[in-house]
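To fix ideas, we close by showing one paired sequence and structure record:
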Amino acid sequence: MPEMKTTTYLKDLWDDAVARPLEGNQLALLRYRSNLLGADLRITNFGGGNTSSKIEMPDPFTGAPVRVLAVKGSGGDIGSIKESGFALLYLGRLEQLKGIYKGEAHEDEMVGFYPLSAFGENRVAASIDTALHAFLPWDHVDHLHPDWAIALAFSQLYTVQHGKKEAGEAGG
């Protein structure tokens, strides 16, 4: 990993001595990374956010390596999640959703396809944000919900919808 500088307020909690024994188990590394992110409530709220990794696992039907998306299960907390709390889905099946996606107004319809993409015996309900994690080009995605960012986004939305004067009067 490239050398990282310590920020004023957040520290890099990654410990190579802890991660090294997990290197052969990508799901365990995802759990470790998730637990570290969830441990600091300045960058996510309890239960908020999603983490994922695109990993290779042996297909239970053929034994051949297949790409799988491991994504935090719906309702889980990344600070305390265990490996069993991640939904495992065939990445190829999820990528097929691009062909049937009808636009943002129909985004919730995609959630019904997630169970049909389940890998092996895994039946953990996938996060509503699974498509985001599947479609982004990176193998590791950390999508967090810090309270400060939610409050800032809401205040900006409120200002746009109601005008600056009203937002100021409402305490914002």
